[in-house]
């Protein structure tokens, strides 16, 4: 913990989200998180031992700066739940779709309750938001999405997603939709490869984008997919003006925060021609329309990015990001 008489550094929130290695901050991490380009921290299972421990870690991070760095985590439920011990074990999204098949009235209520529990428990330890819910609507077998999809029918998925978002909002947490425009039409995992989806833009609009079109006013953030839609654009959405500006901002009228998925994932690396640096990758994402870029599990690349990123701290971006802060009841 910082000394009692130390004051947090005052600086605007920047466009980079980083991670930390363990259950306590190291001195190099403290210095890294005080860089003007940093605006948020994402936590993983390795950062969690207990509710008390993670509360202290988050408080330590937030004491570094004002406004406080945002704290995020992936707490979807099922396979993707970073905090488990002393937290409610949450069902995967598919559970609610299967329940809907049996009971169309109960399923949305259960989705609402699960999301409310998730949000309440995270906010209690100081987390601002979970990267949830998953808007991906599967159209084929997908190991990486699979049971993270609420339902393969877009309108049903949208109904359940709406109830889930209402549950998050009931506890004061914003919703972050992922992975725009959709990761459910490919079998490959963008953590390990660059998946390619040959569908046309209209096919995607009529399937994957249905939940976005219905719920765009209910979400405050969107995370981009590292998937190549080669019938639509030569760039993956993370680097694509077409997907982030023409479709998301102009057609769907989204005015919230756009996050890149982790730029150290293989899909992002391959789409950057494997020769581009992390600085080039981040600059391309920001130029395309990402407000915040994620760099995880590679502190060496984080330092390289912070040293080379062309970014001027400003209150406009900082204010936009600050709207994601959880509202404690």
Describe the 3D structure.
- With 329 residues, the chain is of the alpha/beta class.
- It has one domain: TIM Barrel (Alpha-Beta Barrel).
- It is built from twelve helices and twelve strands.
- It has helices spanning 27-33, 51-62, 93-102, 106-125, 154-170, 201-205, 210-215, 241-251, 266-271, 278-288, 299-308, 315-322, and strands spanning 9-10, 16-18, 38-43, 65-66, 70-73, 75-77, 80-81, 129-130, 176-180, 221-224, 257-262, 292-294.
- The strands form three sheets. It has an eight-stranded parallel beta sheet with strand order 8-5-3-2-12-11-10-9. It has a two-stranded parallel sheet with strand order 1-4. A two-stranded antiparallel ribbon has the order 6-7.
- Strand 6 (75-77) and strand 7 (80-81) form a beta hairpin.
- Helix 4 (106-125) packs across helix 5 (154-170).
- 50% of the residues are buried.
- The model has no long low-confidence stretch (mean pLDDT 95).
